[in-house]
Amino acid sequence: MSEDIDIFKKVVSHCKEYGFVFTSSEIYDNGLGAVYDYGQNGVELKNNLRQYWWKFMVQTHDNIVGLDAAIFMHPKTWKASGHIDGFSDPMIDNKDSKKRYRADNLLEDKIAKYQKDGKTNKADELQTALDNSLLANDLDQLKTLIEQHEIACPFSGTRNWTDVRQFNLMFSTEMGAMAEDADKIYLRPETAQGIFVNFLNVQKSGRMKIPFGIAQTGKAFRNEIIARQFIMRMREFEQMEMQFFVRPGTQKQWFEYWKEARIKWHLALGFDKASYRFHDHVKLAHYADAATDIEFDFPFGFKEVEGIHSRTDFDLKSHQEHSGKKMQYFDADLDENGKPFGNYIPYVIETSIGLDRLFLYTLCASYKEEEVGEGDKKDTRVVLSLPPILAPYKVAIFPLTKKDGLPEVARKIIDDLKFDYNCFYEEKDAIGKRYRRQDALGTPFCITVDHESLENQTVTIRYRDSMLQERIPISSIKSILDDAINWKKILTQTV
Ligand code: GAP
Fold it and tell me: How do the domains of the chain map onto residue ranges?
């Protein structure tokens, strides 16, 4: 585990050093907690991951369409969705250090400690008590467990705790120019509600027939108290969500369908199968009748990346009640008695993945330190073995020297490729150094233009993973890229 944690620390510093992720407004007091900016390479990787999701959801399913709803929504939305009353975490403060903690996290850390110390019975016993307290929403019992298990504040070392209280996670702001007239509105804590309120707009304007889905990617905001593990738990993050509307009574079958479809999509990225597992929920959210998480084995253990939820008709029904507008769908298909199914509020299966967590696992799974060379030339190289489709740059083109017409040939190659592929140009430093920099960015191919290129229109191609080099005609570069960077290849593994 400690070796894994070292790797995680290296991934985090790699992100900064190579322009993947920066702390937000870092120049001020080391930055804003749990808010991050994506740098020049991070934004490319993130865009590619988003595209992979979008192409799968929208392009390969003719019954799923996209949406881009606003971040601000009418405040009644959040009353209807249950977020104003129920979207909170149980928090406890230490009176001496004035630090605030999630009560369930303190208990989970204690369970992990019991397990580490071989006290399995104690760990199991506490886990059951924690699950029961959370299920019953029993805040007093959570505090009792913290006291009984003698949990102290990591900062003050004391056990001087307040009561456990619920703390709402939504950020609010005011709409309108005058503070006095201001209406309190919320920054959306999930993108899903933008889909629900547009359900009939999309269904009618797109003449969609059930079963059908609406997919959306976009920012969500949560006032997370405990900012942990880099971009795992952020206050501003991005979700990729799809709500799939089905006939009531068929939700179990569609829940199973989407579980399988989503895990296939993750596995098609080509990372180790053993790094993924399902975790079925014991404590169901207020809207769900079944739920599971897809977890990934991060260097700090298995953690949730995606949720698949059978949300019943909770959201549409609640929006109907709160808005006074009908949210029903007319199903003209015939049942077994030959009668139309008629009007009903559809049930919903949701798939909800955090783009930032997907980004983080992609980096953790791709980051490698490899021993290369022999004897005096022995060295370690850092390489991101990203699937080529995700790599920020698909190819780097290097003129061997800055003169003799080599840069012009290199530029001409880029001009032929740049409309299809993101290309990197560099003429500084020795070729070996330039290769290493591209390895660290995950660029799958490097092309070197030398004096021979002027004579016979050939170049050296160097492959990131094998580090093999070979001479190829300039005219064949494009087909090598087309073959390796091929959406069809990856997407056919998902359908
Ligand atoms: N609409 C359902 C929903 O929002 P969720 O389990 O709360 O469900 C879905 O969130 C996904 O969003 C999670 O699996 C996770 O990947 C991501 N996510 C949630 N909170 C996050 C946070 N604070 N920082 C980064 N990602 C987060």
Answer: 2-87+169-362, 88-164, 386-492
Cα distances (angstroms) measured from residue 261 to each of 38, 62, 255, 299, 479: 29, 15, 10, 26, 31
- Say how many Å lie between the CA of residue 88 and the centre of ligand 1: 14
The C-alpha atoms of residue 260 and residue 146 are separated, in whole angstroms, by 39
Q: Whose CA is nearest to atom 4 of ligand 1?
A: 190
Question: For ligand 1, what atom is nearest to the CA of residue 192?
Answer: 1
CB 167 within 8 A of CB 111: no
- How confident is the model over 305-316, as pLDDT tens digits? 999 999 999 999
pLDDT tens sequence across 391-450: 999 999 999 999 999 999 999 999 999 999 999 999 999 999 999 999 999 999 999 999
C-alpha–C-alpha distance, residues 224 and 228, integer Å: 9
Q: What is the CATH number of domain 386-492?
A: 3.40.50.800
pLDDT of residue 181 exceeding 80: no
Nearest alpha-carbon partner for 90 in 162, 139, 132: 139
Ligand 1 centre and the CA of 237: distance in Å?
Answer: 8
Q: 2-87+169-362: which CATH number, 2.60.120.10, 3.40.190.10, 2.60.40.420, 3.30.930.10?
A: 3.30.930.10
CA separation for the pair 118, 100 (Å, rounded): 29
Report d(CA 245, CA 208) in Å as an integer. 10
88-164 has which CATH code?
Answer: 3.30.40.230
Around ligand 1, the residues with Cβ closer than 6 Å are 190, 192, 222, 224, 233-234, 237, 239, 241, 304-307, 350, 352-354, 356-357
| pLDDT at residue 71, as a whole number | 98
**pLDDT cut 70: percent of the chain above it:** 98
Distance 160 CA to ligand 1 centre (A): 32
Interval 31-56: pLDDT, tens? 999 999 999 999 999 999 999 999 99
Report the pLDDT value the prediction gives residue 291, as an integer from 0 to 100.
97
